[in-house]
Amino acid sequence: MFALDEPQSTPVVQLTDIHHVYGSGDAEVHALRGISLDVGQGDYVAIMGPSGSGKSTLMNVLGCLDVASSGTYRLAGNDVKTLDEDHLARIRNRQVGFVFQSFNLVPRMTALANVELPLVYGRVGRAERRERSLEALDRVGLAARVHHQPQELSGGQQQRVAIARALVAEPTLVLADEPTGNLDSASTDEILEMFHLLAEEGRTIIVITHEPHVAAQAHRVITLSDGLVVADRVTSRTDLVGGRS
Amino acid sequence: MSFFEMIYSALRGITANKLRSILTLLGVMIGVASVILLLAVGNGSAQTVNSAISQLGTNTLTVRPAGGGQASAGSNSTKQITIAVGQQIQAAKLGHVREVIPQVAGSLTVASTSVSQTGVSVIGTTPAYFTVGTNTVATGSAFTQADVVDMAKVAVIGQTLASALFPSSTPLGQQVTVGGTPLTIVGVLSPQGSVGFTDPNSVIIAPISRIQASFTGYGAVSSLTIEATNAASVTPAQGEVEVMLNQLLGITDITNLPYTIINQGSLLQTAATSAASFTVLLGAVAAISLLVGGIGVTNVMLVTVTERTREIGIRKALGATRGAILGQFLAEAATLTLLGGILGVIAALVGAQFSFNGTQPVVLSYSIPLALGVSVAIGVFFGVYPAARAARMRPIQALRAI
Question: Is B352 near chain A, with CB under 8 Å?
Answer without folding.
Answer: no
